[in-house]
Design goal:
By secondary structure, this protein is mostly beta strands. It has three helices and 27 strands. About 40% of the residues are buried.
Amino acid sequence: MALLTFEGFEAYDTAAQSAQALNTTVGSAGGITMSTLQARTGSRSMINFQTTSTGFWRRVFTRTGDTVIVGIAFRFTQVNPSTSFRLIHFGDTANGLNEIGFGLNTGGNLQVGRNIAGNQVSFNTILATNSTETEPLNTWLYYELKVLLAPTATGSYTLRRNGQVVLTGSSVQTISASTINVNSVSVRTSFDNHCDDIYVCDGSGSTNNDFLGQVRVAALRPDANSSVGWTPNSGANWDAVNDTTPDDDTTYVSASTAGLEDLYDVTNLPGTATTVRGVMVQYRSRLDISGASELRALLRSGSTTVQGGLDAQDVGYRYYSAIWEMNPDTSSAWTPSAVNAIKAGVRRET
């Protein structure tokens, strides 16, 4: 699978809720929040008020091959006047290493760099600087960084802004470690800067294995029951789980025995959508019984129902998800009409 993860920050009202998503970490959550004021798409973006080096959002993934691509939208209100500042970088969480990424210097120029020690805000090694232009403020810009990971001078990188190449290099060392263990992407902004609509791919397979262009992550929420077996604490099943802002135990559905499934109709994609790179089913749940329980995400397209992996439940709320890059009913690329017709839900497995 080349599409490793994506995020539009639509499901969360706080940084703490964002950190409930599986494989996601938020550091210094007091400086990070979800904003409804300057969302690029949908209803929310992530904003960092942090002026120190400790605030970050990180997601771990499993890649195949040594090419990684990240796309993300930024809206800058100002640059850091005292130091160069990294915006996004790939990392190796097992060894605590922050590797290649891009950021802005004090003049607002884009830079690609590598090798970040601990929580310092800037790169130790600058690979390239776009000294001919500064990044505009108070407007959304979409950046994409593609990297061939290499511990010797055999790697390469390309940084694009709104589809145009800004910085590129070849025959360069792109990671500082001697072994390629990159497994995460981190976002670190400051000074009231926003980010939104992030994706991560690798170079494997024949789908989503290169730049995807300016993506939009659309949140499609339940709007009717399709087939339900879980029990709502009040009202209809779909209405108990379609919160824009999570309400924890105020409205919910529950399953007392294994094998029960809920499937819901969902809202449509925006009318401007023409290409769909993948579909993610995301749900939020917790364990309220003694012992253990496992759930799965469910997706039905046409006459085909598929399941995500087993998700072991925690006693506190967590977000779980599964991604389908191709339409399982046709084994071909998703179309907007096919997405609009899907049913999404959850199954209690044990």
